[in-house]
Amino acid sequence: MLLLLRQVYVSEQDIDNQRIVWRGHASEPLPDYRLLSVIYGVAAASHLAVKSLHRAALDAGNVYLKSAEVIRSDFYMDDFLTGSDSLQELSSLQRDVSLVLSQSGFEPRKWATNCQPLRDQIQHASKQISHLLAEGNDIRTLGCIWHRDNDSLSIAFNLDELPIKLTKRVCLSDSSKIFDPLGLISPCTIGSKIWLEKVWRSNVDWDELVPPGISIEWLTHRRELAELSSLKLCRWIDTSSIADAEFHIFTDASEAAYAAAVYCRTLTSVDDVSVVLLAAKPRVAPLKTTSLPRLELCAAHLGAKLVRQVESSFGCRLERLYEWSDSMVTLA
Q1: In 3D, which of 322, 206, 328, 324 has the Cα closest to residue 259?
Q2: Does one domain contain both 55 and 72?
Q3: Model confidence pLDDT, tens digit, residues 180-221
Q4: How much is the pTM?
Q5: pLDDT score recorded for residue 250
Q6: Is 149 inside any structural domain?
Q7: What is the separation, in whole angstroms, between the first and last Cα of the chain?
């Protein structure tokens, strides 16, 4: 999606908050200007971008209720991700979403789908945009690479060449370059966070060499991360209107870290069972020494928050917990 926010006007009572002072030469008078449209670079830019989309959905009225609903729920900033159980419904959704957003000046572009019949239906060009379809089979979105030919996900890595000196600044830079919003590679990313905490405990300065023991572990971990680029995970979790789904939440803790993971177990009408990791969240134990029972409670709290996020994403309310075992909860 390309958001043409500069054509979205700010309400008259708010434009005074977008005043700037500018003059071409020091000898000229000092005038001030008011920016009348939504601009980038201000603190509220992200909020205004999302609200502009919500307003476009609201303007659709009662004619395109389904499209307005997915516009409000299935956008993350300017990335739109949605789906459907049938080609007919998916085709109608794509057409209506394009129409609703185009009416407000936001014409979607770079459509990508794993459904070839739908791809053939999408026009390749419009009056404003010369290419509406994304090129290639590997689509980058939200830190992941979606391989639409086999409908799988992999994690995008962009680690630079390691400098000669391994410092705390370099370690922090490395750990922040891996973006894994779903926590699909949490067992790998939590390791770098644990070692970063060890570096912090060692009280070295930002540009000082890290202790040798941590340095060896970090370099080994860094080399192994490159191998994750070949890891491919199934995007679809086999949920549909004819499948029964259960969500199993696991939480656990150690003295170094605690985590929560949600697995989706689906049973189809032909008794096929599928179990897929849906999401996970790891956390490093606090610098201040904390008892293991307290960390277990922190893990349980993290699991409860993860359940709420799953409920929000699926747009439904999960039933009450009906089974407990050691560090495991099952929901339906």
Answers
A1: 328
A2: yes
A3: 888 988 888 888 888 888 888 888 888 888 888 888 888 888
A4: 0.77
A5: 92
A6: no
A7: 35
* Nearest CA among 80, 78, 96, 76 for reference residue 88: 96
Q: Is residue 324 part of a domain?
A: yes
Place of tokens 């404003």: 128
Q: Are residues 97 and 191 located together in one domain of the fold?
A: no
The residue ranges of the chain whose pLDDT is under 50 are 1-3, 321-332
Task: Give the count of domains, the chain.
Answer: 3
Which residue's structure tokens are 């290419």?
131
Name the residue range of residue 70's domain: 5-135
**Which domain-ending residue is among 193, 210, 230?**
230
Instruction: List CB contacts of 292: < 8 A, sequence separation 6 or more.
Output: 253, 254, 255
Q: Is the residue at 153 inside a domain? A: no
Pairwise CA distance, residues 240 & 164, whole Å: 52
User: In 3D, which of 39, 35, 29 has the Cα closest to residue 6?
Assistant: 39
The pLDDT of residue 293 is: 92
Where is the domain boundary, 135, 153, 184? 135
